[in-house]
Design goal:
By secondary structure, the chain is of the alpha/beta class. The protein contains 16 helices and 14 strands. Among the domains are: about 130 residues, no CATH class; about 140 residues, 3-Layer(aba) Sandwich (D-Maltodextrin-Binding Protein, domain 2), CATH 3.40.190. InterPro entries: TRAP_TAXI. It comes from Duganella radicis.
Length: about 450
């Protein structure tokens, strides 16, 4: 009979098994928190831009490129302009869009669940007119009566703004023949002489603005009362197009021009993920933060110049800069840790009590390897005690054989040295039962039985 007893210093396997319920509970809490506490930001977002060859379209492409570097796909949704973008935001067709200041008000924005990510740039109201030979240039808007002017397509920001400007000058609806062409075909009509003028609201970077500023026979209207307009309509600012800014060598324009300008803002739906808000505002700082024709270095983007309430995450950026973690980590890694701070607190409260469960489970698992054999010993004793007189010797022999089998199996049990006392106790009890059976069979004396340790 083999007498080999297996001992180990420590049972890694038993520790893993004892720890498994706790580890699974912690992993389950982590996964639940990852998906439910604060969902991960989406990988795609829809940005409402503007017409073909517009500044909105051009800047939209820059935002798409900036967010693509962080693994976020920006789908550009073209539109007629600011008013259509605002409508698309309300209807959920886009997640974020360029909107011109003055297009809505604070109460309406809050009611529709919209917030501003900040002002990006000024987009002056450009009124380009054909020069008429032998006639002095138009210097007052009242001189537009009877003229053919393209206000811009329905859904753009310029028609609404230009109507307000004409009303301030006492020009009634119908006194100016209105056209509603998109910017590109309207420019063609102006150059062909089929209309007398056209209106844009756009940043000076727009290709059509650049072209018209350098086209002979096309003159930019000078809003010489720009300061008065900015007082009448608070969402407007007075800006100056400096002499020579277009081309210093050719001195274009040949004089300063006064212009009135709303600001372009990024407006988002309230359900836009806060992490995407951070990405867009950071992209805006890179795209619009430099000096330009009408702005100083660092003037934009800004929480100012918008009648729409600024998103709290955007306001935090303007006050403190990018989130701390995003200064040192990639966007997705920083976002993961930023979202998981709630989980860290929860784990702190969860790990301590659960860790107290592991040691008792470990001890129970080790000792159960010994204790379960006591059931076998008790079964042997019961069969010996209940053996019929006619077959008693046969039962005694069978149970002695069973004890030998139990002892052989017990000797194969692997157990840490710190629990060796339990194993040796079990082996002594097996020997005690064997001596008792042998005594009953007449193979041992009562003195031999008394010498067996209990």
């Amino acid at each position: 009979m083999s007498k080999i007893i297996k001992f180990t210093q420590f049972s890694i396997r038993d520790l893993i098994v004892a720890s498994a319920p706790t580890v699974l509970a912690i992993v389950g809490v982590c996964l639940l928190a990852y998906w439910l506490v604060d969902p991960a930001p989406p990988r795609t977002v829809r940005l409402g831009t503007g017409q073909e060859n517009s500044a909105y379209e051009d800047f939209g492409k820059k935002y798409a490129a900036a967010l693509a570097r962080h693994g976020v796909k920006v789908t550009l949704v073209p539109s007629a302009g600011s008013s259509e973008n605002l409508r698309n935001l309300k209807e959920g067709k886009v997640d974020i869009a360029f909107v011109q200041s003055g297009s809505t008000n604070e109460e309406a924005a809050e009611r529709e669940g919209l917030s501003s990510l900040g002002s990006l740039f000024v987009e002056p109201l450009w009124l380009f007119l054909r020069e008429e030979k032998g006639k002095p240039p138009i210097t007052q808007l009242t001189q537009l009566r009877g003229k053919k002017i393209n206000y811009g397509p329905k859904g753009a920001g310029s028609p609404r703004l230009f109507r307000q400007i004409l009303e301030l000058n006492g020009v009634e609806k119908g006194e100016v023949e209105r056209f509603s062409l998109a910017n590109t075909p309207a420019t063609v009509e102006l150059l062909e002489g089929r209309i007398d003028g056209l209106v844009f609201t756009s940043a000076p970077e727009a290709p059509l603005i650049q072209m018209l500023l350098q086209t002979p026979g096309i003159r930019l209207f000078d809003f010489n009362q720009a300061e008065a307009y900015s007082r009448k309509l608070p969402f407007l600012t007075h800006v100056v197009l400096p002499q020579g800014i277009v081309d210093l060598g050719r001195n274009l324009p040949a004089e300063d021009y006064n212009l009135i300008a709303p600001t372009a803002t990024l407006v988002a739906r309230e359900d836009l993920h806060s992490a995407l808000v951070d990405l867009f505002v950071q992209a805006a700082a890179g795209i619009h933060g430099g000096a330009g024709w009408f702005q100083q270095q660092g003037q934009f983007p800004s929480a100012k110049y918008s009648e729409i309430p600024v998103d709290p995450e955007a306001a935090k950026f303007y006050k403190s800069g990018p989130p701390f973690l995003q200064r040192y980590m990639t966007f997705w890694l920083a976002n993961f840790f930023d979202r998981m701070w709630v989980l860290v607190v929860a784990l702190g409260a969860l790990i301590l009590p659960l860790s107290k469960v592991i040691p008792p489970l470990y001890v129970w698992r080790i000792r159960s390897r010994v204790y379960r054999w006591y059931g076998q010993l008790r079964a042997v004793e019961q069969k010996v005690e209940e053996a019929p007189e006619a077959t008693r010797m046969q039962v005694y022999e069978e149970q002695l054989q069973r004890l030998n089998e139990i002892e052989e199996l017990v000797n194969q049990v692997s157990i840490p040295l710190s629990f060796a006392d339990g194993l040796y106790g079990l082996r002594s009890h097996i020997q005690f039962v064997r001596k008792r059976i042998q005594f009953l069979m007449g193979e041992a004396t009562p003195a031999a039985l008394d010498s067996v340790p209990v």
